[in-house]
Every structure is written in structure tokens, then in C-alpha cells.
Design brief:
single chain; alpha/beta; Rossmann fold; Dihydrodipicolinate Reductase, domain 2; 2 domains; nine-stranded mixed β-sheet; 15 strands; 35% helix; Gfo/Idh/MocA_Oxidoreductase; nucleotide binding; NAD(P)-bd_dom_sf
């Protein structure tokens, strides 16, 4: 029998319990779940009831040092991801961290630098939506230059509806000190990752955010962002958790084509036969009104392709787990290297900083300024310790 990676789960909440279920059902053939850690006695009782064959620990470090696990996945509050990642890597344990990689770039950078010093260990992040075959195909199209240089991107993703009861589940949820933010750090990290993964990292952001806009929370539940890619290219990103009927529409406009994605399931790819600039200078005066009235043959200028896949999300979490284990076992390339996690955290930090200050913020913003303002928000809550 092929060797399997011996995995431990940290945290038995909603995500951790879901992972335990499909791992013990054998849905990831190269992983054997052997242990789970949770600090809550009630949760440990539940683990023992549901998974009597697994080792159960009340302390994370004890599990790491038990000799029973060679890899871990961290399903814990966001602030703990960097710390737990480092603790595992220190002990020669491979790490798959949940999204987001952390709350602020200083702590994620520390994790990345430490992981870089352990090149023999696998460090990955659960960006499961990178397994979506639709988004993988779109990345290929954009990266290959098929639609030319990006001129504008727009993503409206307001399908993250959450009622007040969702926020009332836990005292740490939707707080600055416990969770580190709202929709940007909880629901939208996957979208922020895909946006940058496909379209590239912007140079600066300007954002408007509403804090406790339609929910009784301290953090953001609606955000609108404008980004500058340089060379005149721009992008917008809008997200919210209070739209009962939300919208998911992602557009990428290039100088040689355009992509329109609806509901993260179907994409229409338009490829121009020549660049827009070449088409522009080729249209004579007498044809101006033909263009504006659609009195022209579109086949002369562009083609359309509809891109769809039977499974919108591919293998999602199970695929990331299998890929993580494959990297450990035979060096297969990672779908989502852990070091990529800082990109989404940095963008979320820049968005928060812009919304707090009312200014356009470069991606190389002052990390100490951000952390100082975050700690001010935490102090105002009066529930959690400030961060270093």
C-alpha cells in the first residue's frame, strides 16, 4: 500500500469537523487522519464520540511533539495561524494553514520567512477555489496574453449573505481583536486571492468601507475598492454580507479581448481579431455610425467562447489536501504555496487602511501605521489583547 501522510487537525469547529469527516471517509487517498486537538472539553468529547479511533489532544504543542503526526492543518481563529504555523515548522511538521494566513502582514511575513528557512518542509494554504477548473482556465488565458494587457477589472461579489445570528455564534466573531475584521478577512479572502492570482497585484488601493452598516458588528460588512495597476489600468471590487439576493460578476477587460464570469460558473471569453487600438485606427469615418448602431459584422472584429465545467468547484478542499500530501510525498508542485497567503492579507490591510484614513494607499504601506490603527480598534472594543 502506498504511504500516506499522517495528519493532525487543530480545532474541531465547523471547518475542522468537516475536514475530519471527509478525511476519515477516505476521500483523500494519500492522507491518514490520526489526531485532533481542541482546547474545549465539550469538543473533545464530540471528537471521541464521532472518531473513536483518533488520538485526541487538549494542547497543540503536545500533539506536535507526540510523534504521531507529520503534518497539520490549522482551523483556528485567524490571529493564531502564523503562530501555530511557526510552532509546527520548528518541530519539523508540514503545515497547511487555513485562509487567511493571518490578520496583518507583519505576523504573516514572520511566518513566511521562517517557512523559507525550512525548505525541506511543505508549507501550503487552503486556497481551495484555485482548484476551480473555470478559474484555472481563466488564469491560463490571461497569463498567455490571449486578451492582451489588462486595462480594467471589476468584481461584484455580494453573495456572502450572513444573518445576525451568524455573528452571534461566538464572542470572537466579527471583532477587531478576535477575528481581525469582517467580510475582508472571513468571507472574501478567496476572492481577493483569485483576483490577484489571475489579474496581478495592484500598485495602490482606495477604499470605502461601512462598519456595522447593516449588521450589529464592529467590523466591515460592505466594501467598495478601486485599485490602480499602473499604466492607466484600474480595477474595482465590491463585496457585502447583507444582500439577500447577491451578485457574483467578474469582468476582465484587456486590449485584445474581454472575459465576463457569472456566478463563478460560466465565463464568456471574447477575443479580438486585432488589438482594440488597431481596430480603432482602421475604422473609417463612414463606418462610425455602423459601430454605434450595431450595423456591422461582429465576426470581422471578434469571436466569443463560452467556458463551463461540469463541476464549478473541482475537488475544492479535498484536492488541496491531496496536493499538499503529494508535495510531501513526491514533491508535486503546490496549487497554493503558503507564501502566497501574504498577498491577500496585504491587500485586505491596504483596503482597511485606506477606509480608515480616507487616503489612497500604496501596496508598500507603512505596516506599523496599520498595526497601530488596528490596535486602536482593538482597545476600543476592550475585549481582546492588542497585537505586537
Amino acid at each position: 500500500m502506498s504511504r500516506k501522510v499522517r495528519l493532525g487537525i487543530v480545532g474541531f469547529g465547523n471547518q475542522g469537523s468537516n475536514y475530519a469527516k471527509f478525511l476519515t471517509e477516505g476521500k483523500v487517498p494519500n492522507i491518514e487522519l490520526v489526531a485532533i486537538t481542541d482546547t474545549d472539553p465539550g469538543r473533545r468529547e464530540l471528537i471521541a464520540e464521532r472518531h473513536p479511533d483518533l488520538a485526541v489532544f487538549d494542547d497543540y504543542v503536545t500533539m506536535l511533539e507526540s510523534g504521531q503526526v507529520e503534518a497539520v492543518v490549522t482551523t483556528v481563529p485567524h490571529y493564531l495561524h502564523p503562530q501555530m504555523g511557526i510552532q509546527a515548522l520548528e518541530r519539523g511538521i508540514h503545515v497547511l494553514i487555513e485562509k487567511p494566513a493571518g490578520v496583518y502582514t507583519k505576523q504573516v511575513r514572520e511566518l513566511n520567512e521562517f517557512a523559507a528557512s525550512k525548505p525541506d518542509l511543505t508549507f501550503a494554504i487552503m486556497f481551495n477555489q484555485r482548484t476551480n477548473p473555470l478559474f484555472r482556465r481563466l488564469k491560463e488565458i490571461v497569463s498567455s496574453g490571449e486578451i492582451g494587457a489588462i486595462r480594467r477589472t471589476n468584481w461584484i461579489i455580494t453573495t456572502w449573505y450572513r444573518p445576525q445570528a451568524y455573528y452571534n455564534q461566538s464572542a470572537w466573531r466579527a471583532t477587531w481583536g478576535g477575528e481581525g475584521g469582517g467580510v475582508l478577512v472571513n468571507q472574501a479572502p478567496h476572492n481577493l486571492d483569485l483576483w490577484q492570482w489571475i489579474c496581478g497585484v495592484p500598485k495602490s488601493v482606495f477604499a470605502k468601507a461601512a462598519f456595522g452598516f447593516r449588521r450589529d458588528i464592529a467590523v466591515e460588512d460592505e466594501v467598495t475598492v478601486v485599485v490602480d495597476y499602473g499604466d492607466g489600468a484600474t480595477g474595482t471590487f465590491t463585496t457585502a454580507t447583507h444582500e439577500l439576493v447577491g451578485t457574483d460578476r467578474f469582468e476582465i477587460t484587456g486590449d485584445k479581448g474581454k472575459i465576463v464570469v457569472t456566478d463563478s460558473q460560466t465565463a464568456v471569453v471574447t477575443r479580438y481579431r486585432r488589438s482594440e487600438q488597431e481596430i480603432n485606427v482602421s475604422i473609417p469615418t463612414e463606418d462610425i455610425w455602423k459601430m454605434t448602431r450595431d450595423e456591422f459584422d461582429p465576426n470581422e472584429y471578434y469571436t466569443h467562447e463560452t467556458v463551463e465545467f461540469d463541476s464549478a468547484w473541482g475537488g475544492q478542499h479535498a484536492t488541496v489536501f491531496e496536493n499538499f500530501a503529494a508535495n510531501i510525498l513526491d514533491g508535486s508542485p503546490l496549487i497554493a504555496p503558503g507564501s502566497d497567503g501574504i498577498l491577500g492579507v496585504r491587500l485586505a490591510n491596504a483596503i482597511h487602511l485606506s477606509a480608515w484614513t480616507g487616503k489612497e494607499v500604496p501596496m508598500d504601506f507603512d505596516e506599523d501605521e496599520f498595526l497601530g490603527l488596528l490596535n486602536k480598534k482593538i482597545a476600543e472594543e476592550g475585549k481582546f489583547p492588542q497585537r505586537a
